[in-house]
Every structure is written in C-alpha cells, then in structure tokens.
Amino acid sequence: MVAVIRHWRSLPRCRAPRLLDPDLLGGLGLLLWTLAFLVLSAALGVTQTLPPREQRTVSWYAANPWALDAVTRACRDDPGRLRGSPDCVNADQARIVVAEREARARAGMRPEAPAATPDAERTRQAEAEARRNQGDLTSPTSPRYWATRPMERAQQLAHCGRLTPQQQTRFYCDAARAAEAEARRPRS
C-alpha cells in the first residue's frame, strides 16, 4: 500500500484547464471575459445612467419661444397621449404669460417684475421671519402682534371672514380686528 501511494505521488500532475484561460484560448479569452462582464452589467442595471433633463418650467418656456412653439405643436398634434404631461401643461401656461406680456407692452403698461425662483422666495421669507421674530415673543392673542405684521393681519382678516363665530375666537380674529381698527384710526 505504501508503494502505491509513493507511486501515485511521483506521477506528474497536470493542472485542470481554467475556463476562458487567456493562455488556453489566446486573445479570445480576454474578449469573452469582457463581453460577459458587459452583458452581466447591462442585465443588472449597473451601466451609467443618462443625466436628468433640465426642468422646463413655465418661466423657462416663456424665455425660450422656440421650445414653446415646438412643444405646443406636439401637444396639439397628439392631445390624447400628451394632454396632461408636465411639458404640455407648462407650455400652455407659458403661452398665457407671453400673451399677458405682449398685451401689457401693447397697452404701454409697465412689465411685471420677474418671478422669483422658489429657492430665492423661500430664503427671502425665512430672512423676513427671522427679522420679524428677533426677540419678539408677543402672543397672537395680543393686538400688538397683528399691528407689527400688517401682511399677516390682512391674510388673517380675510380668513376670519370665512369662519364661524366659534372658530373666530380660536383663530385670534378679535386681536387682528383690534389691530386693524388701531391702524385705521387717524393719528392726531
């Protein structure tokens, strides 16, 4: 038995061929590995995605009449499929904005101020809120609170007009009305 084991160990060993070994198949093995990787990555969705298309808002369409005309033509050509798409809705609103601008220009009126971007508007509101509330802890139940905030007071009074008397007490309508009366009172 020992002799058989010694004989078996002395036999030359040959390696089993590796699958797609470049030495075994030449340059074809590398090509096959590359193709296998590409097919696998495409199947798994690992491929690079395209960058997102820029958002085309109403103001963008109003500023780009060539795109506005092209999208309007496409939307009118296939309304069944494109009617509710964001591009068609934004282009339709942009046509209204452009028409208003042209009407103002024909009437000799001053053009409206350009619309602020949502980020700029949010920043402006946050800064105004920070300035307004700096050290002021006045309760909305006080007329002084509404006297220092005329824009909010106008909105609150418009809101109060649609509420029942029970709801008006919960939403500080009395304090807002008192501040409005004080603001309207002539100064002597």
Mind explaining what this structure looks like?
- This protein is an all-alpha fold and 188 residues long.
- The chain has helices at 2-10, 22-25, 28-44, 58-63, 65-77, 79-82, 86-107, 118-132, 143-147, 150-160, 165-170, 173-184.
- The protein is elongated, with a radius of gyration of 37 Å.
- It starts with a helix and ends with a helix.
- Mean pLDDT is 76; it is low at 46-51.
How do you describe this structure in short?
This protein is 66% helix and 0% strand. The chain is mainly alpha-helical and 188 residues long.
Keywords:
188 residues; mainly alpha; 0% strand
How many strands in all? Answer: 0
Helix content: 55-70%
Give the number of helices: 12
**Outline type:** elongated
Structural class: mainly alpha
Largest sheet: none
H-E order = HHHHHHHHHHHH
Kindly report the oligomeric state of this protein: single chain
Low-confidence stretches: 46-51
Q: Rg, please?
A: 37 Å
Please give the alpha-carbon distance between the first and last residues.
126 Å
Strand content: under 5%
Mean pLDDT: 76
